[in-house]
Amino acid sequence: MENCLFCKIISNEIPAYKIYEDDDFLAFLDISQTTKGHTLVIPKKHYRNIYDVDEDTVAKIHQLAFKLAKQITKKLNAQGVNILNNNEAIAGQTIFHYHVHIIPRYRDDDKISIVFNENIDSNIEETYHILK
Ligand code: 5GP
Ligand code: ZN
User: How far is the CA of 118 from the centre of ligand 2 (A)?
Assistant: First the structure.
């Protein structure tokens, strides 16, 4: 898609450190390198995010992210890994080409923190009835 940064990485208009490529997917190092080895996995076909992408692509990208996460962990001697995906700006999406982050974690890494704070205003009972 025109003016999409990740589409330009796919077509080599913009360089990237590509660590995996096949006919349908690409994995490359995230420019931020939040932690050593921070990687993005993307489909070659342009989708905005999970509200746009098809189920088969989601299944395949996660299967690939799972494999790469284990390889990256091992090769970089990480102690763990976060696999995450942001959808829409409110959720932190800044590049609107569907992607999955692989973020290796190391003892004492201090560039990223994922904290689930308790929200005492949330009515879990009501939410349950909406969602069940
Ligand atoms: P999002 O915030 O949309 O989930 O993630 C977008 C990611 O793309 C960010 O982590 C950001 O560092 C990364 N990014 C932005 N521009 C570039 C770029 O030009 N090259 C690479 N390799 N990564 C980029
Ligand atoms: Zn794109």
Answer: 36
